[in-house]
Fold this sequence. Notes:
The protein contains eight helices and ten strands. The protein is of the alpha+beta class. It has helices at about 30-40, 80-90, 105-120, 130-140, 180-190, 195-200, 210-230, 240-245; strands at about 5-10, 15-20, 20-25, 50-55, 55-60, 65, 150, 160, 165-170, 175-180. It has a five-stranded antiparallel β-sheet. The chain has a three-stranded antiparallel β-sheet with strand order 6-8-9, with helices on one face. Strands 7-10 form a two-stranded antiparallel sheet. It is globular and about 50 Å long. This is Phosphotransferase enzyme family protein. It comes from Actinacidiphila rubida. Keywords: Transferase. GO terms for molecular function: transferase activity.
Amino acid sequence: MDEVEVVVAHSERATLRVGEVFLKVDADQARIDVEVEAMALVPVPTPRVLWRKPPVLAIAEVPGTALGRLGEPSPASPAAWAAAGAAVRKLHDAPLPPWPGRGREPAQLATDLDVECEWLVTNGVLPADLVRRNRQVAEAALRPWTPVFAHGDLQLTHVFVDGEVVTGIIDWSEAGPGDALFDLAILTLGHEERLGDVVAGYGGDVDRDVIRAWWSLRSLLVIRWLTEHGFDPFAPGCEVDVLRSRM
Length: 247
């Protein structure tokens, strides 16, 4: 009998693996609804839905290997990263989905950013000068954008490749209308050296300063959540190191 592997687990959701099947358990059925519908609409490879019985969604394993992991060197080639960029472009060029975006608008992001920056400094989590510098960098991301069909959580562990071919993109629960550069930023977070490859595959005029701003903005916003849910943003190459690289 296959063993049960806990892929990720926290108070909001958990993902288990049994052989070639992944079981996603989510307290918020709206997220599962979005995930299933998004995978049916997007023009890129996604996992096959095996069955669904709330609160559980069962999906098949996708072939290939992930682009890498945050905090570790990526084993994928430059061509594989470029292929990921091309797949993201294909997604962003697709018609917008019929549901509203789950992301926050610039004004709300600015408010949330102020709250998190104050918390980081007041509680001695990060030095004030580090927070201040990254708060300044993050400003460039707080601008209007034209919505695209965005993945919403495009971590490099969510993109699978086989050689130079993208074989699957997983975890679509945050999909919806969103900022194209946010997707590109999350994909390259902690792997700045791969940004050129991704942009080459993505094509077009990409504002890299905004992507760098999203690296700072995203990292500042999630440190409290990560620490409260059992993750370590201070691990080498992770969110705190991303912030330090802006100094």
